[in-house]
Design goal:
It is built from 4 helices and 17 strands. By secondary structure, the protein is an alpha+beta fold. It has one domain: Creatine Amidinohydrolase (Alpha-Beta Complex), CATH 3.90.230.10. Strands 9-8-11-16-17 form a 5-stranded antiparallel beta sheet. Strands 1, 2, 4 and 5 form a 4-stranded antiparallel beta sheet that branches. The chain has a 3-stranded antiparallel beta sheet with strand order 3-14-13, with no helix packed on it. Helix 1 crosses helix 2 and helix 3 runs antiparallel to helix 4. The chain is globular. It binds magnesium ion. The site of magnesium ion (MG) has 5 residues, from loops.
Length: 250
């Protein structure tokens, strides 16, 4: 069931979104050679708790940490650990928070030290494709209009888009209807009406889009072990356009 959010609900989600902006502000400068993914998770955890918000992912279906942290060929759902980041790695941090029972969800991919040009391009493409999707929005348009625009941008750069994991509605639960695929056909899917809030999250691969889950039961990697990037924002759709609750996209 797709639910449109009231002004009050959007206010709470805006506060939950602001907490994630603060998380990224605090975590980003710590992304350096030699830091562990667990160190980054700890910074995120402290930021959410200091803001008086609640951590969304820890305990969700048994997930053990505050963030999903995925490195290089890991696409999503990586578990923070003692792994030290190396020069040239690409690290994605996906994190959720809630305020008075209303959720926000967002992800960033960052370079560790210097990365090569192609990997920078891969990283930028996740964010650029989300922007391309949003630019397809008009009140009453369909999910497929955004999906098609995201897919088109990614393919125009020579990359592929993950199919098995998709974006989602968000509100009282972290995952609500509708699903938001990062590929598809314009003119298809549920309508996007003002008041709908979506977590849109393109996952871009430099090789084939097929993925598999590692034996830890969580970490999703590309089957061909080529690298991936991920960008996610929580977006409120309005009569005039959209508001990004978790970042600067406009
Ligand atoms: Mg999400």
């Amino acid at each position: 069931m797709i639910t449109l959010k009231s002004k009050r609900e959007i206010e709470l989600m805006t506060r939950a979104g602001a907490v994630l902006k603060q998380v990224f502000e605090n975590v980003k400068p710590a992304v350096t050679v030699g830091v562990t993914t667990r160190d980054l998770d700890k910074i995120a955890e402290e930021t959410i708790l200091n803001a008086g918000a609640e951590i969304a992912f820890k305990g969700y279906r048994g997930f053990p940490a505050t963030c999903c942290i995925s490195v290089n060929e890991e696409v999503v759902h990586g578990i923070p650990s003692d792994r030290k980041l190396c020069e040239g790695d690409l690290v994605s941090v996906d994190v959720g928070a809630s305020v008075e029972g209303y959720f926000s969800d967002a992800a960033r991919t960052w370079p560790v030290g210097k990365i090569d040009k192609q990997r920078k391009h891969l990283m930028d493409t996740a964010r650029d494709s989300l922007k391309a999707g949003l630019s397809a929005y008009k009140p009453g348009c369909r999910i497929g209009d955004l999906s098609a625009a995201i897919e088109q941008l990614i393919k125009s750069r020579g990359f592929e888009v993950v199919r098995e994991y998709v974006g989602h509605g968000i509100g009282k639960k972290i995952h609500e209807d509708p699903q938001v695929p990062n590929y598809g056909k314009s003119g298809y899917g549920p309508r996007i009406e003002p008041g709908l809030v979506l977590a849109i999250e393109p996952m871009v691969t430099e090789g084939h889009y097929a993925v598999e889950t590692l034996k830890d039961g969580w970490t999703v990697v590309t089957k061909d072990r080529k690298w991936a990037s991920h960008h996610e924002e929580t977006i409120v759709f309005t009569e005039k356009g959209f508001i990004c609750l978790t970042g600067e996209i406009s």
